[in-house]
Amino acid sequence: MGAQPEDVTPVTFYRPDYHVKTPHMRSPEYVQMSTAAAITLGLIPGAMHRTGCTHCLNLLVTYPEGCRANCAYCGLARHREEARDYADRNFIRVDWPAVHYAEVIERVKSGADANQFERMCISMITHPDSDADTRVLLKRWVSEVPRIPVSILSNPTTMEKDDLIELRDLGADIFTVALDAVTPQIFDRTRGKGVDSPHKWDKYWRAIEWAAEVFGPEKFGAHLICGMGETEKEILEVAQRITDLGGHNHMFAFFPERGSLMEDWAAAPRDQWRRVQLARFIIDYAGGHVTHMRFDDEGRVIDFGVPEAELATLIDSGKPFQTSGCPGKSDEEVSACNRPYGDSSPSDIRSFPFALNGNDVRLVRRQMDGEDIGTL
After folding, report:
1. What confidence score (pLDDT) does residue 289 get?
2. Distance between CA atoms of residues 358 and 209, nearest Å
3. For 5-8, which contacts have Cβ atoms below 8 Å and span 24 or more sequence positions?
């Protein structure tokens, strides 16, 4: 989303042996991957501000026809098909270079840096071949790289319960649903009929409930975006609903994606985002509950429902403000999927892709108090 961060080395996906025009790149032979993943694998040059790599290999199925959905905040939306070749579009702020899946697997199996990966994620899009090709990618990965668990970022619009069962049986470790919008009205306005897109609120929730049944507790989750017009209370009530089902919440701060229908929207306010991050962590990991929290007339958190000393300890740990996503091997409270600068630039970090130091925590406290200041 947004412009290229000024303090991250600009990268261009160029290799002499990759002179294949992106319109011809098609899954399952090809996949797209996040810039951070490509840097970590050594496929492109570059460096990330204050973090050496991503610990999750984020992959995306890709087709010349592109995604057939039209989500208002997404860089892959159908309305952009005249802008440039589909596989060259930015997505969650960064470019997603397209590469041979065989080379991805080979580099993960043989490269020293690839040992830093704790998880792989296959992200689906709305396309007739996406379901079948996701199964092909999953089956090959489990066969060749069994040491690294796989998450599926699903497309509920094209799926039924039997599809989840098949993915589980093929070896998928975690199943996630990008609900994103947290009220039926916002969902319809940004993902459904309001933007001539096929997604439906009820179908997404049905998929979440299927995931709870098929994958079980701690093995499913939902993506939620803060800052698309909902109140803090509304997004936290949805987070509680996910947790009550046995899942985890993967939070994103809204940042206007360049070229999307919402590119002129403001990014999520810093104070709102910090309160939501902290409350989400309390709900997911600290035994809190949204019904124990108090909100003002505008739905803002004014009491997190935990003792002050415990709250201070949580804030000082910095963990609530790190990127939330599927877990890694070392600490279930810290995501392997750190998505470096996926929802902000390094000069205004919203989701920290690394452990916070004392200065970071002090900044976060000031932002929670309403000071409108960035990270750098």
Report:
1. 98
2. 40
3. 5/49, 5/341, 5/345, 5/346, 5/347, 6/345, 6/347, 7/49, 7/345, 7/346, 7/347, 7/376, 8/46, 8/47, 8/48, 8/49, 8/341, 8/345, 8/346
- Write down the architecture of domain 16-268 according to CATH: Alpha-Beta Barrel (3.20)
DSSP 353: S
Mean pLDDT, rounded, of the chain: 89
pTM as predicted: 0.90
Query: How confident is the model at residue 341, as a pLDDT?
Result: 87
The tokens describing 104, both together, are 């991805």
309 phi and psi angles, rounded to 5 deg: -65, -40
Query: In this predicted model, which residue has the larger pLDDT, 230 or 93?
Result: 230
**235: enclosing H helix or E strand:** helix 232-245
pLDDT tens digits, 275-317: 999 999 999 999 999 999 999 999 999 999 999 999 999 999 9
